[in-house]
Amino acid sequence: MAAGRALRLLAPLGCRLPQHGPAARRLLLQQPRRGLRLSAAAAIQVTVRDALNQALDEELERDERVFLLGEEVAQYDGAYKISRGLWKKYGDKRIIDTPISEMGFTGIAVGAAMAGLRPVCEFMTFNFSMQAIDQVINSAAKTCYMSAGSIPVPIVFRGPNGASAGVAAQHSQCFAAWYGHCPGLKVVSPWSSEDAKGLLKAAIRDDNPVVMLENELLYGVPFEMSEQAQSKDFVVPIGKAKIEREGTHVTLVSHSRPVGHCLEAAAVLAKEGVECEVVNLRTIRPMDIETVEASVIKTNHLVTVEGGWPQFGVGAEICARIMEGSAFNYLDAPAVRVTGADVPMPYAKILEDNCIPQVKDIIFAVKKTLNI
């Protein structure tokens, strides 16, 4: 484990350069390094990596209390290049490289938040946040409640979460259900570039501890970013889901990378006359169950999709909340969950592929729910 972890520090995955089309590359040459900007009213393609970088840059510039710390975030520009260019711009006091000790630097960040600063604490992978679980839960999550609201803890814990590619069991867990279980935390899980930028800015401005679960495989993926999202004032409200695709036959609820799989499955099923409504949760806690209920009332069917394990998962919570609420009376079939396999993630690619929900699994679940 120690050797494997050292290798990830020296040669981390996900260090690919952002991918842009010809138009975006021209814009990069014309505009300042801080990020893509357009004077005309038009959407542009921005990778999730660049969107996160923009959000950090804008919030560091906006509020001098904001700082970033974590392993390799400064001189190395971040293990995944999320913090690229920020150390040169803001210096050692705002962008801080730490030793390989999550327990230590997370405790420092939590203490700084209690003292009035607004730290962004990066984990190289959320699997390593287990080293700091006491600081995240016992120190950050519970302090505001235990102090009767007199001690806010405005801190963001962020980094890649869930399965990547070929990193085996110790680097592949989804922590959405783990952290979503704990009162005192807000938990967000972005899919697109707009999600990533807007949620990170909202998390930094929030007075509560926020866990931001990103996905390593999405970092290099370009998404269309609207003119509104290019603004420095753009935020995505925490606790509000988004309908990514309208539909009438079945509701697909997901978060993070599987949202893309749901949209792919919906496109395939549309050719067969099945219209899926795709709900991008964006926030795990507090969960926007009202949007899910409204969709289920419309479609009368529910399928949840997640990369995490099935037992006590996000999908299990959604199904329970629907069963307990008024939307249950509108269901024409039992809700179905599509999840990761209930095993530690294997290293072999063919086994890994069979442990992660695929488009075909979502299509199968939809047809099972609709009895077609």
Automatic annotation (TrEMBL):
It is found in: Mitochondrion. Transmembrane segments: none annotated. Residues 46-221 form the Transketolase-like pyrimidine-binding domain. It holds the Pfam family Transketolase_C. The keyword NADP does not apply. Its EC number is 1.2.4.1. GO terms for cellular component: mitochondrion; pyruvate dehydrogenase complex. One of its GO terms (molecular function) is metal ion binding. SUPFAM superfamilies: Thiamin diphosphate-binding fold (THDP-binding), TK C-terminal domain-like. Its main location: mitochondrion. CDD domains: TPP_PYR_E1-PDHc-beta_like. Keywords: Carbohydrate metabolism, Glucose metabolism, Metal-binding, Mitochondrion, Oxidoreductase, Potassium, Pyruvate, Thiamine pyrophosphate, Transit peptide. Its cofactor is thiamine diphosphate. Gene3D superfamilies: 3.40.50.920, 3.40.50.970. GO terms for biological process: glucose metabolic process; pyruvate decarboxylation to acetyl-CoA. It catalyses: N(6)-[(R)-lipoyl]-L-lysyl-[protein] + pyruvate + H(+) = N(6)-[(R)-S(8)-acetyldihydrolipoyl]-L-lysyl-[protein] + CO2. Heterotetramer of two PDHA1 and two PDHB subunits. The heterotetramer interacts with DLAT, and is part of the multimeric pyruvate dehydrogenase complex that contains multiple copies of pyruvate dehydrogenase (E1), dihydrolipoamide acetyltransferase (DLAT, E2) and lipoamide dehydrogenase (DLD, E3). These subunits are bound to an inner core composed of about 48 DLAT and 12 PDHX molecules. Interacts with DLAT. The pyruvate dehydrogenase complex catalyzes the overall conversion of pyruvate to acetyl-CoA and CO2. NCBIfam families: PRK09212.1 (NF006667), PRK11892.1 (NF008854). This is Pyruvate dehydrogenase E1 component subunit beta. The gene is PDHB.
